[in-house]
Amino acid sequence: MIAMKLALIQFDIVFGKPKDNYSKVEHLIEKAMIEQPDVIVLPEMWTTGYDLSRLDAIADKEGMETKKQMAALAHHYSVHIVAGSIAQQSQGKVYNTSFAFNREGKCISEYQKVHLFRLMDEEKFLHAGDQKEVFTLEAMPSATVICYDIRFPEWIRTHMLAGAHCLFVPAEWPTPRIEHWRTLLLSRAIENQAFVVACNRVGSDPKNAFGGHSMVIDPWGDILAEAGDQEEILFATIDPERVKEIRQTIPIYEDRRPDLYE
Ligand SMILES: O=C(O)CCC(=O)C(=O)O
Asked: Which domains are assigned to the chain?
């Protein structure tokens, strides 16, 4: 498998204004493409931010608008896009949904956030998903979980046991707990011997300030790239072979004792 160049677009989301965010993201992807990445990664709920009480009006119906824009950009630039997540209206419910697109613009993954974050009232406005998905990006088996999901190592492990080597994490993680974010991401990379590619937003909304520090971590736990707390496009190149190397060095998947804890 050949190396893959990633571009994580860490930006400030315009509160409750999908149109503004679609144009902002289109412009930022155009900017990122100057460096010719293989994969673009976006943050959580990037079309609306946490304007939860207005989701009935502004959530994307069946994700149609987002899928249309992302598919067109992926195809136009011949780039994979892990399109963060958006508020998706489906059959009278709203989910926090992540889509991924391949270079042909085909949607290859759909994941709905499983753990809803009560501290930010998610459970009052959103429905939780209950499915995991492993998809192939170039030749790299990958999975996406969203923000608060990283506090649940048992959930992440199920993706690894299903074959994932790379975990994408779109987020809107607030500044006061940014050290939790960093530590949890490092732990998920080390304990699963997987790449962790985590894209957070910056800026603020009426209730929270968001801390950035998007990160790319390798399966040994080395930080390959880390952003600051301002808007930034973070680039990193990963070598998918590194996963096999680390998993052979310390064979945790062979040494597990599921007879004791599953
Ligand atoms: O777990 C945390 O501290 C932050 C989670 C969060 O902001 C979210 O899931 O949207």
From this structure: 4-261 (3.60.110.10)
